[in-house]
Write a structure and sequence with these properties.
alpha+beta; 52% helix; single chain
């Protein structure tokens, strides 16, 4: 962890611990954002971590940002922090002035897409997308069009057609639609593409998932150490130890592949490692039920904090590319590889993307 990362993680830890409280979670489940929590995150510079210093940001690396997002995932932070970080970075890359407040991204998904056009100097947006994180409560939605270059539009949620919805964690996931809607700004650049934006937000979400997984494991280890059954701590039973060892292995493997993917994405690369990280995390999320099993009945209650991690993990698993999407990407790359060449090709992914 870099010195920059340590400094921001320590500061963010205090903010998240103090402000990720019941009112903040309730605000999210009501379709909004807790104003005080968001203000503290903005004041701390966490939302502009990826924006270059000459544009008013921190100029930190993606690795630094993902380290902080692990902490946000650990706390189940009910705010669009990852979306705002990446959306602010996108705006800085395409030359659109920075926007304050919570931001979100609409990149198209599951067959949906956006079309941005510029006629007589007027930028217009057409398209639709379901399950946009905080789509109606963000300050602006940053929309990206499919293609080799990044064509980016900025639109205020109040001007776009939308239906409020939520995911299994109670976080806003809204349906948005527009038909030749005039928008605030539009820009295009070949310096980045929509797929590169997707890689950034996909690995940012992966960081949050690793944090949530790690916290679920920590809570489970603490519980079986303190809870006694038949006069012995639960953690002394071999069956419980075996289950927790499985979960610990999932956390370790997910953390390692996510770190490897972050390093490649920071070098404007990393399609396959991002796919591998997200696919591996999907497998790990399937095992998070172990945390509930070792907690017994209390683990399924709303009063106990475990659900803040597990519900988010189940929701985040398929955001910014489903598990099937990432697995298909890996399959298409390696299909047809002769058996003797498979391991060398796999090993080469981490060095030079195949």
């Amino acid at each position: 962890m870099s010195e920059t990362s340590k400094m921001f993680v320590e500061a963010a830890s205090r903010v998240l611990q103090d402000w990720c409280t019941k009112p903040a979670y309730e605000a999210a489940e009501a379709g909004g954002i807790h104003a005080d929590l968001w203000q503290k995150l903005e004041e701390g510079g966490f939302t502009t971590l990826l924006v270059p210093e000459n544009q008013g940001g921190v100029g930190a690396s993606l690795a630094d940002a993902v380290e902080l997002l692990r902490l946000a995932g650990r706390h189940g932070a009910p705010v669009p922090l990852a979306e705002t970080m990446v959306a602010s970075w996108v705006l800085s890359q395409v030359g659109v002035p920075a926007v304050r407040g919570p931001l979100t991204l609409a990149l198209g998904a599951d067959g949906s897409s956006w079309k941005l056009s510029n006629s007589s100097g007027k930028a217009k947006l057409t398209g639709s997308q379901v399950d946009v994180p905080w789509g109606l409560s963000a300050t602006v939605v940053v929309v990206a069009q499919q293609g080799e270059e990044a064509v980016v539009g900025v639109v205020e949620p109040g001007r776009i057609s939308g239906t409020g919805r939520s995911n299994i964690a109670g976080e806003p996931r809204d349906n948005l639609a527009a038909r030749a809607l005039g928008i605030t700004a539009m820009a295009a650049t070949r310096s980045i593409s929509r797929d590169q934006v997707l890689r950034h937000i996909a690995i940012a979400r992966a960081g949050m998932m690793v944090g949530a997984l790690g916290h679920a494991l920590e809570m489970s280890v603490r519980y079986v150490r303190d809870r006694k059954q038949f006069g012995r701590p639960l953690g002394k039973f071999q069956a419980v130890q075996q289950q927790l060892a499985v979960l610990a292995g999932e956390v370790a493997a997910s953390s390692a592949i996510t770190d490897a993917a972050v390093a490649r994405v920071d070098q404007w690369d990393g399609d396959l490692l991002v796919a591998a990280a997200r696919a591996r995390l999907a497998d790990a999320v399937d095992k998070v039920s172990i945390a509930h099993q070792v907690h017994g009945a209390i683990g399924f209650t709303r009063e106990y904090a475990l659900h803040l991690n597990t519900r988010r993990l189940w929701a985040w698993r398929d955001e910014y590319g489903s598990a099937l999407h990432w697995r298909e990407m890996l399959g298409r790359h390696f299909i047809g590889t002769p058996a003797d060449d498979l391991w060398p090709r796999l090993a080469a992914v981490g060095r030079e993307e195949g």
